[in-house]
């Protein structure tokens, strides 16, 4: 996990990967963070250099970095 954004008591953990094809293994730290913080962190983002946006798990969304910035 590279960044955590906090707003209104909620947390958004973000991982940044230099991969065009994010994998489930890439979000292990995000899932651990979510397990530790429960309802404070309901979802997380994995930013990557690819072109597709997809849910890797029910709570981890993989998004190309350029769609967010």
Please give a structural write-up.
With 69 residues, the protein is α/β, with parallel strands linked by helices. It has one domain (3-68). The chain contains two helices and five strands, in the order E-E-H-E-E-E-H. The protein has a five-stranded mixed sheet. A hairpin with a 2-residue loop joins strand 1 and strand 2. The longest helix has 10 residues, at 28-37. The radius of gyration is 11 Å and the shape is globular.
Summarize the structure.
With 69 residues, this protein is α/β, with parallel strands linked by helices. The chain contains 2 helices and 5 strands.
Strand content bin:
35-45%
| Proportion of residues in helical segments | 10-25%
Which stretches are poorly predicted, pLDDT < 50 over at least 5 residues? Answer: none
Number of helices: 2
Number of domains: 1
